[in-house]
Write a structure and sequence with these properties.
By secondary structure, the chain is mainly β. The chain has one helix and six strands; from the N terminus they run ββββββα. A three-stranded antiparallel β-sheet has the order 1-2-6, with no helix packed on it. Strands 3-4-5 form a three-stranded antiparallel β-sheet, with no helix packed on it. A hairpin with a 6-residue loop joins strand 4 and strand 5.
């Protein structure tokens, strides 16, 4: 799973200070095989950020999904679940 619903995938920062956590509305899984590589990055600006996953073998296989601001409760719940 590259990105899970409700979990922080990126953080929006202004002047070196975190403003908001960003996540995806729907999870994103990538299927592959041993040795297959992907580049994962955040693109766009503060009003339209996306999570992009691109296969790096020279093909044009790529997917981008929008990132949304997470509610504070979602990030707290995700951190609590991660500590268990």
């Amino acid at each position: 799973m590259v990105a899970s619903t409700g979990q922080r995938e990126a953080a929006l920062e202004t002047d070196g200070r975190k403003v908001a956590d960003l996540g995806v509305a729907d999870g994103l899984a990538v299927v592959g095989w041993p040795g297959l590589e992907y580049r994962v990055r955040v693109d766009g600006d503060t009003s339209a950020a996306t999570l992009s996953v691109t296969q790096t073998d020279g093909s044009s296989v790529s997917v981008s999904i929008p990132l949304l601001r997470l509610a504070a409760a979602s990030t707290t719940a995700a951190k609590t679940a991660a500590k268990r």
